[in-house]
Fold this sequence. Notes:
mainly alpha, elongated
Amino acid sequence: MYYSELVKKACVIMYDAHKEDKDKGGYQRDLLARLRTDYVHEQQERYRTQLAQLGDAIDRASASERVKLTKQQKKFQDQATELQKYEEKVHHLADQNIEIDLDDGVKHNYELFADVLAKIK
């Protein structure tokens, strides 16, 4: 899934936040809001731009090139759709402004964010 890349970016934010706030293990209540605005929205804009450029290129392309560009367009549309669904989940959790307690343990805290995190193996 594409959004696993965004989860990695969230981990980077948490690592950076950890330097500032060691009491919460790097987690701050606005983490998901920052992930959404700093990464998800930016990636959505990149997809919109890429899809618009591909649409223009398809209009001007020869038949053989049009097939190749249409496949690329489909790939970007699928990723944009997946990212939109992910954004809705992140938005919902970000609006909740969830506080965690490290004493509750990883498993409990993971469950609070399970919709937007990769599965624990």
